Amino acid sequence: DALPICPAVPEFAVATAVDACGSAFTLTSADLTTAGACAGSYSVTRTWTATDACNNTSTASQTINVQDITAPVIDPLPEESTINCPAVPEFAVTTATDACGSAFTLTSADVTTLGACAGSYSVTRTWTATDACGNSSTASQTINVQDITAPVIDPLPAPSTIDCPATPVFAVATATDACGSAFTLTSADVTTTGACAGSYSVTRTWTATDACENG
């Protein structure tokens, strides 16, 4: 028995025969194919029959088993790429081919790796193609998401004027982060003196800084 690997196909020897009585004879063959676990796994038996003019016959057989040890091939995926949050990864939908013609399944699984903040991470999608004979192959695509977007501070009141001895009362700022990152909100005041002790201006500046240090 020979053991070719699909997609190779069986190549049989050509039988010869001799007749001890010197009779003319015919030599014919017939093939019997037995299916295996998948399209690329099967065996073929070729049986030769020699029949002389007196209808005496003899047979001889050769069997070739074809094994499928070849995994499906997944088509190339895009190279590693980087996007900016709040955009989310959009992966290519891959396809595959099986040289042996076997049916196969194509599945995917994602692994997410966290970065310094909620808006910074990477996702790797790994595709696995498995044929009916259990042969499998994998291919992956990685998309990195980076957070380069600072939190946005909500609008503050316009400049206003008060009369001493009143003291400035400032609004408390709020902010939002499009990438969902945690952030700190701090303030600092700068006072500018006027013409006399009771005349001055105060500017309060708020700074929002996220965990990826965008601010």
Question: Can you characterise this structure?
Answer:
This protein has 215 residues and is mainly β. Helices cover 0% and strands 46% of the residues. It contains no helices and 13 strands. The chain has strands at residues 25-35, 42-52, 57-66, 73-74, 81-84, 96-97, 104-114, 121-131, 136-146, 152-153, 175-176, 183-193, 200-210. The strands form five sheets. It has a four-stranded mixed sheet with strand order 5-9-8-7, with no helix packed on it. A three-stranded antiparallel sheet has the order 1-2-3, with no helix packed on it. β8 and β9 (136-146) form a beta hairpin. The two termini are 73 Å apart. The mean pLDDT is 93.
Task: Spell the H/E element sequence.
Answer: EEEEEEEEEEEEE
Ends distance: 73 Å
Query: What is the number of helices?
Result: 0
Unreliable parts: none
Structural class: mainly beta
Number of strand segments: 13
Question: Which percent band covers the strand fraction?
Answer: over 45%
Question: Helix fraction?
Answer: under 10%
Mean of the pLDDT scores?
A: 93
Q: Sketch the major β-sheet.
A: 4 strands, mixed
The coarse overall form would be: rod-shaped
- Strand neighbour order, sheet with most strands: 5-9-8-7
Radius of gyration: 39 Å
